Amino acid sequence: MRQNRLQQFWAQEKSLTILLIILIAHIFVIIPFGQQTVLGKIIFLVFYVSLLTAGMFLMVKNAMTRTVLIVLLAVLIIMGSDLFLKSVSFEVLDDFIVVLYCLMLSWVVLLRTFSEGPVTIHRIQGAVVVYLLIGLIFASLYHSIYLLNGEEAFKGLDSADRKEFMYFSLTTLTTVGYGDISAAIAGGRSLSNLEALVGQLYPAILIARLVSMEFESSKSK
């Protein structure tokens, strides 16, 4: 009975609001302030798994498959953290999983956002979810580049903590470009250019599409 209620909730548009709240807390609170201590790392992992669980309810309908995937990916994410062991290979694998997961989740959220029907506040929040997921995707890619190439990959980093790459990703995505951190190798520069381009095109295309949907909905009424 409880499982059915959860499934019904995540089938509704307002579930996108919950996903947005989790993502905002993860990106703007947990990542910047929550990894300096062991307790902070545990909280960081809890929010990672919360984001993972929320997304799985959106993407996977079968309860057994969803549970298996959540457990499997959660274990891999925990192994990719330095809570129990320090391994570059596991950290890169962790980044790859995050990128793949965020891409799939973005696709599902966009399908909901641009499905037929009136434009609601929940759909707009879904579009914001995708925008933040883009920032998280590129932050993970920058982190992998750093792990594989060392300190020469970026200039201006205070540490190798994920908060540095999240900060660089968001300033690049929004084209603020303070210049305190910059990519120093070809791969990093190409990614930052691509992210800046996506950061410009996504809002423009999104607004045009949402306005078009609202116009068509109003016209049909």
Shape: globular
What value does the Rg take, in angstroms?
A: 18 Å
What is the beta-strand fraction? Answer: under 5%
- State the order of secondary-structure elements, H for helix, E for strand: HHHHHHEHEH
Structural class of the secondary structure composition?
A: mainly alpha
Q: Based on the structure, what is the oligomeric state of the protein chains?
A: single chain
The termini sit apart by 37 Å
3D structure, described in words:
The chain contains 8 helices and 2 strands. With 221 residues, the protein is mainly alpha-helical. It has one domain (2-220). The chain has a two-stranded antiparallel sheet. The longest helix is centred in the last third of the chain and has 35 residues, at 186-220. The model has no long low-confidence stretch (mean pLDDT 84).
